[in-house]
Amino acid sequence: MLRYAIYFVPLSGNPLNEAAAQWLGRDVFTGVPIDRASPVADADDETFQSLTQSPRRYGFHGTLKAPFELAEGRTIEAFADAVEAHAKTLAPFALPQFRVGQLGPFFALLPTERSEPLAALASDLVIRFDGFRAPLSAADIARRDPDKLSASQRGNLLNWGYPYVLDDFSFHMTLTNPVPDALSQAFQTAACRHFEPFMAEPQSVDALSVFVEPERGAPFSLYKQFPIG
After folding, report:
1. Which listed site, 23, 58, 124, 219, has its alpha carbon 20 to 30 Å from 29?
2. Global confidence as pTM
3. Beta bridge pairs of residue 209
4. What residue ranges define each of the domains in the chain, with the CATH number in brackets?
């Protein structure tokens, strides 16, 4: 079954997208693979490719509404039209500056402080477009290991299809798979060096992007990007 998501991705033409494509090895707008040598000391090309496989598949993004299957009777055209119409009612806003940080063993671009406008936008999108979402299957719920989630996260999973929404939302733009401790410092150094030009100036939330996963495990691709405002 196809799945759809609403992501934050900077507008097409933003140099951050190009830098992320070079890091991950795939252009989020075209889906075209990009060959490059490993930028990480002590990690050969094969190791670097392996340790960036998951974010390469998902594409460079920050999740606003997590992937979901469409509810019966709903269409992607109607969903995209609704997202486009809502994007036109919004105003762009600046994010806090980014830093390279870790979420457990994963590396990601993280805002230096919580953005309340971004958290409010994400919560609104989760709720506003929930009518397009099919209920999770028992297998989908089990895949999330609900016993390891907090009570709030379990409630989010059952009510909204994803644990990390509303008060549990934490914005990030993933750069790696779990990185072994032995390579952690090397990845930190390389990622900071690679994304350093984008840490001085705040990025703007200036678009909503609808992404599609054609089948489970396949690379996500951009369906349409809608400028805000």
Report:
1. 124
2. 0.95
3. 7, 225
4. 3-227 (3.90.1140.10)
